[in-house]
Amino acid sequence: VGTVTATGDVTVTTGGGMAFYTITVEGNENGGGDTPTPPVITDDHSVKMNTTVNQMLLRTTGGDVKYYNTVDLAEVNIDKENGVVSVMPKTGDWNDEFKQNIAAISFAKAPETGEDAEIVNRGVSITEAKGWLESVYCKWELLEGASSYRIYIKGGKYADYTPVDRELARNYGTYGRADIPGLPAGVYSLKVVPVINGEEVADKASEATAMNVRAYDRSGFAHFNFNDGIGAYKDNGELKDDARVIYVTAETAKTVTCKVKQSNKDGDGTVFTGLQSIIDAYQKGVETRPLAVRLIGLVKKDDLDKISSSAEGLQIKGKNNTIPMNITIEGVGDDATTWGFGFLLRNACSVELRNFANMLCMDDCVSIDTDNRNCWVHHLDLFYGSTGGDSDQAKGDGTVDIKGDSQYITVAYNRFHDSGKSSLCGMKSETGPNYIDYHHNWFDHSDSRHPRVRTMTVHVWNNYFDGCAKYGVGATTGASVFVENNFYRSTKYPMLISQQGHDPEGSAGTFSKEDGGMIKSFGNVYAETAGNDRFTPTTQKISASAFDCYEADNADEKVPATYKTVYGNNVYNNFDTDPTLMYVYTPLEATEVPAVVTGYFGAGRLNHGDFTWDMSYPGADTDYSVITALKAALSAYTSNLVGIFE
Predict the structure, then answer these.
(1) Mean pLDDT of the region 382-386
(2) Could you give the CA distance from residue 575 to residue 414 in angstroms, rounded to a whole number?
């Protein structure tokens, strides 16, 4: 946008760069003037929401959002005295005038795509290279005569080019690829050296330089007052000093070995063979050396040595939640995939899951079940599970479930692909409060439970609710949930409290017969509502009892104890205003969320993974049936990985 003006006293010029602005259009409840008049739109050339480009968002007093591509606009004028917003294009003779019905104007820039490295090819032809989150990657064309490749990294603590683990260089038949995780934020260079006749050929080596690496976002309850780093990594992104690394492929899942101490007299440890057997050996609670499990390619249930949970799959079980297991399970690259099994965490402390996909799990993709603490689930692509026996299990039982008194859990930057039940958070047995947070997740046409909370204390912030067909956040059984700065696009029932507000509407609206839990809301945006009240919550400002949430005027506002749930007389515990209970975080404005969450550094795996599915078909926003073509594609999914270069 060239210029935004407000009659009388305000001019905002965006200049050459793109920034975020929110302009509140003041006046009476209809947008300006002394006497309310019916809102009028003289014309409407707005476009559809598009997170791939810079857009201006006009939020109407009716709760809807109008989008304009900023590249097409010349000027936006705001007449505050009369409550009129005029939008004028660079080309064309139209002028959209919104009279007394615009509440705020925001600008959201297009998502980041990552910076391409500077490539110098001498023999090997590097075709693509970038830095990502605590990692770098590159792809190259296979060089005639080369039987293998050696990869070197420079930057950070590596003053000179240093060789990386052999397993990080993989063969995909028509190209090679290397990914190097465990890099603190900074600028790095990578070198690919071909091996011909058993010798490295230095004069045919090529380089990718100026690779910018960012840190993972470590906001959230999992990291609160836990200063050792979750899993196998330090908080700066590098492996802990005594960490071990094992690489797991379909071919090595049964045969991979690792020494795990079984007693204080066990020296360097006892050798265990097979992925599940190695993790099971941590149950003694003696071994505290961190373990990074790096998944390469597609790993199916039948590839594993065994599963220790007949219901879920791979079990990560500690002795108790006071002894850190320090285990990270991470995918290498953009194609690491677990298929046909999920993950069960019990008595686990300091466990991290990151950067892989889960397809067709047995029950839940991730079940954080029973006395877990300080666990971090992030940057996963989560797909359908196996069909269960109940009517609501057509897409699997759950996606990420948290229960059994699990505390200090963060679920962040994950993409939920058409999930049926995204996240159950709490049963009835929790002693509470149990501190859980969900942030920067992409609920991509998932149906419900984002999350569905019992008893627990939960922070839901900066998530993108993208066409969710049943409901967003649900609170029951005395839960306290702070829902902050989320972007809801075409989402039915953004927030529900059991048995009040919109919940008692019948089978379409009722999600629980339990007593209510309290929801505090602030800074959320509801877009593409078409004026339907089921797409915007009822607040206490509309009804003092039959409300879906308490709408705060600012993030620090405390909910008065006079506001109670209709059933159970439960009150909000105001955890979010107590600095002894809350972590430090910096939320984005809600209008910024879709572009960030869908961008290069956003939700899901690196580069959004090797398997994608377009959810933008007609009717997708209201359809909660299984997409049969997607289910078939997941069933038929195969990896393009040929193997690791020898």
Answers:
(1) 96
(2) 25
